[in-house]
Amino acid sequence: MKALVYAGDRLMSYRDEPEPAPSPGDALLRVDAAGICGSDMHAYHGHDPRRVPPMILGHELVGTILEGAQSGMRVTANPLITCGWCDYCVRGRQNLCSNRTMIGMTRPGAFAERIAIPRASLIEIPQDMSVRAAALTEPAATALHALDLSTRALAIPLPQARVRVIGAGAVGLLAGLLARSYGCIGLSIAETNPLRREAATRAGLHAVDPLAEEARDAFDLVIDAVGSRHTRNAALQGLRPGGVFMHVGLQDWASEIDMRKLTLAEITLLGTYTYTIADLRATVSALHAGVFGDLAWVEERSLSEGAAAFADLDQGRSAAAKILLRP
Q1: What are the start-end ranges of the H helices in 257-316?
Q2: Which CATH code fits 140-271?
Q3: Is the pTM of this model over 0.90?
């Protein structure tokens, strides 16, 4: 089969790869589309030691079951392969599973014509759901999980809060669109790339250039969907006393932050990691119902053009917050 393989730093190779060999309990899927995630870009840059080349990346997918009683059923999937029996799985917090592995990281991913994945990871979707919407389930569930954790920590209802999302990549854009659907009026999204600001504006969000403003003590909630040293500092600087800092992105894995303000202003700092099974199912329903809008900002390309798509994202040449690759 054809696959897009991460072959080394900034090197993606479209080539023939062996067919998947499903283990007992696995389903064999035809991949209908797979999205390029920021973590795939981290691997592309050589910044993720967990993804070792050569590796088929890709974990945001929609596909069709090829074998068994459910053959022909369209599904998406939880890319986290969880054990089902640890304390976290039993409590419904599968994203924190003590024994988790992941497609596109510890086993071949979805940038291929076919993939083998445990049937327990499959999430059924409405059979008339568009490929574009279904393929966004994973990043949209990340946004939903982060926003739900944030609202629990806020001292005021979300519609009354001033909210800043940092980063108009897929998760940032989806978080902004979801917050808007929850009734949040005082919402802005900060993005340094003018192409992505334009895309966010076309999606109906108020986009600003953070380099052209100085936001201090302005927001009740800041969602950092980038996760760099600079965005962490900007998030803390922008928060009002008593505010909530939701940290999602991991562009930089470590940095110093202003602990004095965190302490004296009683800022709540939250980290979030992916989503639960319940989040994924809720996200499928929300996407199918159009909660995230028309998704016109998503770009689709052939899997054979995947290397160019990675290069365009790397060089900031694409306005798309999400590029889907279709085999």
Answers
A1: 259-264, 277-288, 306-314
A2: 3.40.50.720
A3: yes
